[in-house]
UniProtKB/TrEMBL annotation:
InterPro entries: AAA+_ATPase (IPR003593), ABC1_TM_dom (IPR011527), ABC1_TM_sf (IPR036640), ABC_transporter-like_ATP-bd (IPR003439), ABC_transporter-like_CS (IPR017871), P-loop_NTPase (IPR027417), Type_1_exporter (IPR039421). This is ABC transporter transmembrane domain-containing protein. Residues 361-597 form the ABC transporter domain. It is found in: Cell membrane. It comes from Devosia ureilytica. SUPFAM superfamilies: ABC transporter transmembrane region, P-loop containing nucleoside triphosphate hydrolases. GO terms for cellular component: plasma membrane. The keyword ATP-binding applies.
Amino acid sequence: MTDQAVSAATDPEKIVSEVKAAPRQLQPLRRLFPFLLRYPLRLALTVLFLLVSAISSLAIPAVLGGAIDEGFVAQNLDNVGRYGWLIIGISVIMAVASGARFYFISVIGERVVADLRQAVFAHLLQLETRYFDTHRVGELTSRLNGDVTVIRGAVGSSFSLALRSLVTIIGALTMMILTSPVLTIAVVVALPAILFPVMIYARRLRGMSRRTQDALADLSAMATEMLGANRTVKSFTQEHVQAAHYDTSSEASYRAEVKRLGARAFLVGMVIFLGTAALVGLVWWGARAVFDGSVTAGQLGQFLVYALMASGALTNVSEVLGTLQTVSGATERLTEILDTKPEIVDPARPVALPTPPLGTVTFTGVNFSYGEAGSDKVLTNVSFSVGKGETVALVGPSGSGKSTTLSLLQRFYDVDAGTIAVDGVDIRDVKLSELRQRFAYVEQEPIIFAGTIADNIRFGKPDAAMDEVIAAAKAALVDDFVTDLPAGYDTVVGERGVMLSGGQKQRLAIARAILKNAPILLLDEATSALDAQSERLVQLALEHLMEGRTTLVIAHRLATIRDANTILVLDGGEIIDHGTHDQLVAKGGRYADLAKLQFRTAEAV
Ligand SMILES: Nc1ncnc2c1ncn2[C@@H]1O[C@H](COP(=O)(O)OP(=O)(O)OP(=O)(O)O)[C@@H](O)[C@H]1O
């Protein structure tokens, strides 16, 4: 027992407050009920089989009592045989009911876990970008896996065990009262002595399990991050350092778990000891009662079996309470996700965007900051408009707000002041899905999903026919390298497309955008230099993609900038200048400096 546990068990004030707090600690479990209640028939069958198995097991000691009095004590072998057959009959019912109970509760457990996992995943995808800015993805996946698995174990077995034990305790106590009220009183007096410490201790365990789950989630987040960044880790020769960090966290998690296990072992041991001690007292009392003739030997035997059943069930309850504390912690963490309301949602009365699309974009007096409105402004009074089919390039130093502008247009965040309109409609008045259908977004570092090349191209239009996929691939100059691959479009690319080169990945992302066929193209040009041949292919693919589309591009390539209708020069979140490349260069202002710096190499080529 740890020092804290000793003080918890001996500090009366603490005991009172913890006992008061105990019921609240299991409250998160209530959130699982709606998931359970979705399956009333299976639930009813589970309860039915549970009752049948519990009642049949409770019947056995009564029959045993009869066998002792009318068979053994009366020395009547026929009666022993008769009671024996009766017990066999009851155990057949008990066996069938127990099997069926196990089956139904396990199936419900699996069902609830699947539903919960799906609900959490779907909800996570609904949450806005800001949520992911402040939560580690590894931690979220740990919740989705670890916490859900903890709950699976509980719903599948602990709930069943808890219910069965409760029914057994109630049934055994009833039978004990019917058998001998005097002996029952002795047991009932001893009962709080067992229950009280259990309740106090169970609360302690809950806090511990939340801590171990948190430690595990941290560990999982760390592994996800480092394995994902394995090239960076290798390149900076940080394998040993990162492995050592992981070891430290892993050891911390191990220690937290050992501490919890110790506390739990103590709880189980405590209940077993208290239960056995109570039983010994009971046998002593019982022997006196038999000697003075107030109960028969059969009744005492029967009573003892019931008392054993009750104490066994009580032990189970203590174990289950420990488990339920863990489950409660896990449920709490998952419901925290489910309770997080997305801030960016569809408007109550959405306005339809015009069809066919116009493809225009207007920013009017947009202010934005990532923190509280007004703090650390990232964009200040940004106004510009892009006409149908025009190309507008955003240029400016790092951190000037270029990516933020594209994020705001897709409503990943809401503006603090001003308006953004697409086709003349304020984007806050449009259904999110309808708004985002209007954009094809090519990121600076395109994400390639685990799956086939065809699946990757189809990402925005999963029902696209193969010839559409191939047409998009041809336009994006993907077709050439794909046909050289052994499985062609069915070639599986790794989690991050590790098999593909940088240029190939970019062209694959361009094919995806071509297939989506949205009227407005949002392009974050890659800054990383590609070799001349690759660069030319990407440029050609982009030209195909930009054909007939309104384009907003964060430009790093001279070719893109030269061809842009307008260049917006951003600095510190403000548009400090705009015009064509030639106009801006002629002006000789900030853009001219920037262009000189940025395109020195390109122009030299
Ligand atoms: N998710 C975020 N949370 C908080 N601050 C952010 C976030 N994303 C960007 N910022 C900050 O907002 C400012 C503008 O960033 P933004 O990414 O828009 O600049 P950028 O012009 O696209 O830069 P780069 O060319 O380097 O990509 C920067 O100061 C950056 O630190």
